[in-house]
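During the no-cost extension, the postdoctoral fellow (Dr. R.K.) reprocessed legacy sequence entries with the updated structure-token encoder. One reprocessed record is reproduced below for audit purposes.
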Amino acid sequence: MSDEFFIPKLAVFGVGLIGGSLSIGLKKANVVGHVIGVGRSLTNLNKALELGVIDEIQSDPLLATADADVIVLATPVNTVVRMLEKIEPALDQQKIVTDVGSVKGEIVTEAERILGDKINRFIPGHPIAGKEKSGVEAAVGNLFENHNVVLTPLLSSDKSAYRVIEKMWQIVGAEVTKMGISSHDRVLSITSHLPHLLSYTMMNFLSNSTERELCYEMTAGGFYDFTRTASSDPEMWRDISFMNRHQLLEHLSEFQTELATIAKLIEDGDEQAVEKLFFSAKEARSRLLDRRRHG
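Re-encoded structure tokens follow.
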């Protein structure tokens, strides 16, 4: 790679929303020469080729890796490790590998086992951006603009490889943040994994109600906002929930304590305490929105 950023050949494993959007963004910035698409759905890959998201379809992970300078594993979290096992023989000290998984601990542990001394060229990553829709037809070039991408390099990570992946995400508009692996999994459990679990649970709670038909008629904006993520891919979120289960169970237990607290306040008729709790939450929400608006 030259000092002027350019990826001659990029291999994207999983040309869906994230992988497809990354490819589109890099192509628009004219910083990638040739994009190889790898995936299990030939229909999706043909669509990606038709849309110009990729330039080539490759069914063999080893051949795709052998021909690439940067390899992005944008497959579901439960397949990242399998992909690393498949491509390891084709990796060398000139190639860089990164992933986009929402859970880092289990993936990194397995990556260390699989890659051995090649682990220094693996830069774990997680773009915190997305939609409920999936597939390459949902991909857009500005998906990552003003969104965080977390990179969790290891102590052994090659600094030049880190800078390439950092620059790659910055070029498509992302704010890159460096975090420790365990810190990432703790924080994302609270900000992403637990909210998805609550959204799915709320929808099941409504659909199991004897008043469900009337409830369907009486939902408004607040309910739609709260349950928006229940439209996400169930298979993907099943895998995330189990891969980060220790953190998720801990935070779920803490959340249940919060629910028990407010239930007790309502039971006791403590209106002042309930209002104070709501006011505190409203202030926290305002600070969150202000931070998002002003970066």
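DSSP finds twelve helices and nine strands in the chain. The radius of gyration is 21 Å. The remaining legacy entries will be reprocessed before the final report is submitted.
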